[in-house]
Each structure stands twice: as structure tokens, then as C-alpha cells.
Amino acid sequence: RKEVEQDPGPFNVPEGATVAFNCTYSNSASQSFFWYRQDCRKEPKLLMSVYSSGNEDGRFTAQLNRASQYISLLIRDSKLSDSATYLCVVNINDKIIFGKGTRLHILP
Amino acid sequence: ETGVTQTPRHLVMGMTNKKSLKCEQHLGHNAMYWYKQSAKKPLELMFVYNFKEQTENNSVPSRFSPECPNSSHLFLHLHTLQPEDSALYLCASSSWGGDNEQFFGPGTRLTVL
């Protein structure tokens, strides 16, 4: 089983819709979790950290489910500018593991 | 200049060439990283430096040789590369610790002929 797994997509979603995707991790000792965003031909940038109690930042909500070993990202009222690849990142004893990413296309 | 900068942005080299990639961060961070990003593969961590000391080498072939002269600068020296080494090489920096945000440079797009 891969350390960090994501559905590569692409997710094609109409503008204004809500979209969610998950990321599973294999190591139960994983300590911290993040979502990064990478635009085409650009570098990754932190979107949000994922806290145990779940957290929200505007239209974005991140959740952690330790029992089932996955994190999720929910995007509400999606915008064209949300089109990007979303990378799941897991920290295991200060070792950072990136998922392959999920591609999201917001359709006008 | 702010953030993390990388030079060159694009590099084409033959298998017998020797070249170096440069990364500089202006964020006051003490940790720096080299990543490789190939098509259809996740970001692969290559090397980690903390306060100029290498703390991680993820079984990277010796044809890749990192150098970290100080906390602000990181180099990746390349020699006798293979075509499969063609990829985007990203540098990142952060405050030390896995809970801290990593800031990435724009990357060097490397093509090995």
C-alpha cells in the first residue's frame, strides 16, 4: 500500500458546485497533514493545514479521520480559479510525503 | 528579492555534462530541501538540510551531489545524468520541523539528452 494515495482525477466540476476529494495514508503514526495546491507549470503552495478537529478557511474545509486514516478537502461554491492540482501531504516523524495529487477542472 | 529563487529555470544538458542548480531563500529559514517532480509521479524528496547539515538523503544516486554552504543557499551538482533524470527540480525552505509550511521555488525544468 502506498504511503499517501490520492485519486488522480481529473474531477470536472461546473462552476458553483461543491467538490470533495480524499487522501488516504498508510502509516498510523502520521503526525500532521496538509493540502497544497499546484497550478499548471507552477510550484506547490500551501493551501491549508489539516487539524484533528477539522478546519475551515472560507470556501475550503479540511477534515481528518484518524480511525480510517484519511483526510479530505471540500470546496464549496467552486470558482474557475480553483482549477489546479491538489496535493495531499503527510508528515511522519518529520519526513514529508507528498501524494501524486488530484487534478481539478472547474468548468464555466 | 523575496521568497525562494532558483536558477536556471530551464536546463538542457547532455549525459556527459556537469552542471549545477542553484537555490536561494530570503525567508530566514533554516531548513532547505531538494525535490524531483516527474510526470505522473508524486513529488520525491531528495535531500534535506537543517542548519547547513544534511539530515536526509533518500537513496539518491551519486550523480546528484548537494551542497549547502549556508542556510540561505542550496546547490545541486549534476554529472553524468541519464535521460530518465529529466524532470522538474524544486527547491523548498521552511523553519525546521515537519509541521511547518514549506515554501517552494519556481523549479528548474531539466532535460537530459
Can you give a write-up of this model?
The complex is a heterodimer of chains A (108) and B (113). The mean pLDDT of chain A is 93. With 108 residues, chain A is mostly beta strands. In chain A, 0% of the residues lie in helices and 57% in strands. In chain A, strands 2, 4, 5, 9, 10 and 11 form a six-stranded mixed β-sheet that branches. A five-stranded antiparallel β-sheet of chain A has the order 1-3-8-7-6, with no helix packed on it. Helix content of chain B is 0%, strand content 57%. Chain B has strands spanning 4-7, 10-13, 18-25, 31-37, 44-50, 53-57, 64-70, 73-79, 87-94, 103-104, 108-112. In chain B, the strands form two sheets. In chain B, strands 2, 4, 5, 6, 9, 10 and 11 form a seven-stranded mixed β-sheet that branches. In chain B, strands 1-3-8-7 form a four-stranded antiparallel β-sheet, with no helix packed on it. The chains are: A mainly beta (108), B mainly beta (113). Chain A binds chain B through residues 4, 31-32, 34, 42-46, 49, 87, 91-101, and chain B through 33, 35, 40-43, 45, 56, 90, 97-99, 101-102, 104-107.
